[in-house]
Amino acid sequence: MEIFAFFVLSTEKIYNNSSIRQHNNSSITMKNFVSNEIGTLRKILIHSPDSGIGKILPSKFKDWLYDDTVHLQKMRMEYDEYTRILLHFLDPEKAKYVSEFHAKHGTENRNVYKPEKPEYFDSEYVIDVQKLLADILENEKAKIRLVSAICALENCSRLLQNRLENMPSVELAKVFITGIIDDENEQRFIFPPIPNLVFTRDIGIMIKDNLLLSKSATPARKRESLIARYVAIFHENLFNDAREKIIEINEDSDFFLEDDEVQREKIITIEGGDVMMIAPGHLIAGCSERTSKGAADAIIHRIFSQPELEIERISIVQIPEVRAQMHIDTIFTQVRRDTWVMYGGYSEKVAREKQDIKRDYTAFLENKNSNKRNDQMRILQFQKAASRTYSPSQNYFSKELEDLEDLLTQVSVEDFGVSESEVNIIYSANNEFPYSEREQWTDSCNLLAIKEGVVVGYDRNDKTVEQFEASGFEIITARKLLSELENNKRTIEEILDMLILLSSSELSRARGGSHCMSCPLNRDRVV
């Protein structure tokens, strides 16, 4: 692994190397900036399901972070709905191109969604990571470094490394993602696929005009983190030469000298599903199965040490390390400045309501805190005025909130100016047992806001959908909306307060919703 470490670290020396230039002439020039979760979406990173996903075996579920096999063709059809919805909102001209392509070639022909195909829609605003990877691989120096780094990570032979170095960039990008290479009309794996790349939220998160890169918690996602890092460093058009605004968080220099127990406490792992740039002055970060306490500690110090970000409050949401709620965005997401969707399983308020129906003495018998019925979640807030100089020894702890509803209400009221009486929290399946937990598992709370009040979710979470309808939202399937848009029966501008339902029989098996399947690079400011 020493070679791998060398090539990863050596990229730091080439941030400002003017001799390294990207040969791709595409113009992805819109400034990257995200200061909230609900402003109109302008630019986004996605990744269409690739062939590696279709080769996952039950015996590899644990290693590759899947819970079921998926029907790849059906999954792709479902994802194509998602892509077309995004194009209609972010890039109408490309949406029209895709529609015309399907009219001519049929929906079975998916070349329009494949970055390696000449028919690819190639939007500047809805961007596939595979396309960006192919772009940077046109740069010979970037290509040699990334091939070397990935081959070291995956323990490839020198013979294979030579072959990859001489492979065309478009083909090589596909190989890096799928792990599959073509050998005389026969496909074979040269290293594992990275089937979780479809969840682009986790590779990085925009914190205003800074990009916080992930540091994967699991071996299955290490190559994703590596690819994201190289794309961020080398893709000049995408990041507008702002490499000094790439945030990488690592352990302290003496970390590797500590014993195993201390290392387990201090290790830094970060995934984007645990970071929300929720409001201009407020960042939320999770401690979860995937993002460590050490990472939360490092985020507090790093963000407060950058006064130009003007982030004065950091909320840390600590949740149990369980598969069902692997990130905080599987528990709650924002819909409008006054509206949220949330899983009630960790809610103190919901627990009290249940106690009002029937008293539960289990906590007493287990010698737990009798005053707090739910001790599985903690919400800690840290505060520093942007005008004050950061000091690493200063205690910035402000307070601990009792409940998740308190945090969501606080954001709506203090960050967005909503009256407390107007805050609306939509619960997964209205907290109805057993549907609340079932629908949270299939991402009832993991919604992407395309613009304020217009969110994308899955069609299988019926009882949560009913709650949206009861709150005044229009419910429409993605298929019906696409038909109306493409037949000029509705315009994007007139769409307000809407829940768009994707077909999801296969997408939901991959254990992530529309919020997970997005990495926003630019949103409009809301306040």
Structure, described:
The chain is an alpha/beta fold and 527 residues long. The protein contains 18 helices and 20 strands. The strands form six sheets. Strands 8-9-10-13-14 form a five-stranded mixed sheet, with helices on both faces. A four-stranded mixed sheet has the order 16-17-19-18, sandwiched between helices. Helix 3 packs across helix 4 and helix 6 packs antiparallel against helix 7. The N and C termini lie far apart (47 Å).
Summary keywords:
disordered N terminus, 527 residues, five-stranded mixed β-sheet, four-stranded mixed β-sheet, 17% strand, 20 strands, alpha/beta
Oligomer: single chain
Q: Main beta sheet, described?
A: 5 strands, mixed
Q: Decide which structural class fits the backbone.
A: alpha/beta
Percentage of β-strand residues: 15-25%
Please work out how many helical segments DSSP would assign.
18
Gross morphology is globular
Mean pLDDT, all residues: 89
Please give the share of residues in helix.
25-40%
Across the major sheet, the strand order is: 8-9-10-13-14
- In the predicted model, the low-confidence regions spanning at least 5 consecutive residues are 1-28
Number of strands: 20
The first-to-last residue Cα distance is 47 Å
Which value, in Å, is the CA radius of gyration?
Answer: 23 Å
